[in-house]
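A reminder from the course coordinator: this example appears on the midterm review sheet, so study it carefully.

Given structure:
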């Protein structure tokens, strides 16, 4: 059952190629909660994006793991998401939007408690994220809007 999680703080927004075979893209946002102990990852919905990944934990699981992380498949998927979020902030790709403080709400689809800290996080939550700042949300959607028309 989905729950809402809300917060205020730094949000890093970035375009993301989530399926190489189909060139499917989405816009992800990364934030933290609980003083940084919780990684928050959300898809910013983009109208017309029929290839939105849906369950981010399932998407993470499709990316395969070589042995970087230990534990169950669910744990490893959570580690992959924590790495993707943290990495988006430390190694920014073109088009990344980093906002020092904004309000957000996550329609939380899933949460995983980690067996130990990864990238400073003990928990990963994922779902669809909405930003209170509608102008910022439009800027985020524009990160892939052009690629949807070209597809």
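Designed residues:
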């Amino acid at each position: 059952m989905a729950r809402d999680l809300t917060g205020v703080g730094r949000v890093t927004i970035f375009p993301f190629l989530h399926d190489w075979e189909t060139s499917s893209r989405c816009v992800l946002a990364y934030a933290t909660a609980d003083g940084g102990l919780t990684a928050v990852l959300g898809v910013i919905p983009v109208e017309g994006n029929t290839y939105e990944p849906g369950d981010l934990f399932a998407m993470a699981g499709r990316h395969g793991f070589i042995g970087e992380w230990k534990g169950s498949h669910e744990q490893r998927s959570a580690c992959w998401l924590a790495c993707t979020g943290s990495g988006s902030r430390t190694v920014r790709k073109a088009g990344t939007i980093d906002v020092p403080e904004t309000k957000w709400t996550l329609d939380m689809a899933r949460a995983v408690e980690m067996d130990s800290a990864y990238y400073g996080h003990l928990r990963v939550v994922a779902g669809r994220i909405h930003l209170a700042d509608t102008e910022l949300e439009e800027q985020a959607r524009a990160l892939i809007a052009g690629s949807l028309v070209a597809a």
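The longest strand covers residues 97-118. The CA atoms of residues 25 and 110 lie 21 Å apart.
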